[in-house]
Amino acid sequence: MPQAPFVIPHTLQDLPPKWAHFCLHVEKFIAEDLNIDLIGKSIVTAFSGGADSTCLLLIMQYLALKNGGRVVAVHLNHNLRLEAAEDSRWVQSVCDAMGIKYVVESKDIRALAQECSIGLEEAGRNARYELFQQVMIASSADYLAVGHHLDDLCEDVLMRLTRGTGWPGLSGMAGYDPARNLIRPLLLTSKTTLMEFLTDIHLEWREDASNTDSEWARNRIRNNVLPLFMKENPNFHESIARLWKLGRIEEHYWATRTTNISDTLSNEILKDAHQALRLRLYKASLDKHGQGQALANTLFKLDRAWLENRVGSKFQFPGNKTAAITASGVVFSCTH
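Above: the chain's sequence. Below: its structure in token form.
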């Protein structure tokens, strides 16, 4: 493997003070907003070679060295672009220059998509996360770090808005997903800041031309819709960051109000509950039975049926889940 044609700062102390403080600000976000302690932790880091993942890798490495942890970089060549093999070589050269352990693999995503009858985007995502999971197990890692940033969060909120997502889901993707041990350390950091960081330390990154392809919904949001919001509100990024923080607070609150629910919500529980709480209880009871998003319209109909004491009424939800009105309350079940 040829040596990288660049010199990368190896530690926080090697960085200009501005960017050392920036890395520590990311650490503070991880500790305070995500409630994750990095001391002694092993982090698998997704590394595509783009500006966001390059920043992520460097920051996680600096913080790992500071906190007695370690980083393993993971890159998957999707074989969808002519530059993909060169991207893989570049990724390896950066890791070699930083002394970071890495795993680089290649898959024919187009063939995988055809085999599974799914889109290229879904096939690529499935393959990446399958590889991430394999490396996490093999390296006994504590967390998987991915490079979603504030611009991605803005796009995610707009996409959720178009799908009619309710609150607090409308506030965007989670910063920490405990089911996958996944963290998003850069979620409240703008892409402009990430590019400025790399530019100031004289490190280039790889550009993925497919990010401008309007075939993908996310690219249409990124390239056409988000700029309109930015034009109307130049502080849109900051507004979304505040919305995300509020969403996490509300999400935590509702989680504390809907714990330890059984398959039956009794009339005694429901009769003194505000409609907002009743709807949350219905959704939590359904979510307990596995995958399948509970649709708001059906939840409203279920609540109306309970209020009208329509005993015997049944409501079907995605994932083969059922809610039935009984004389004693609402009973939830699922058939597989």
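Residues 262-334 form one domain.
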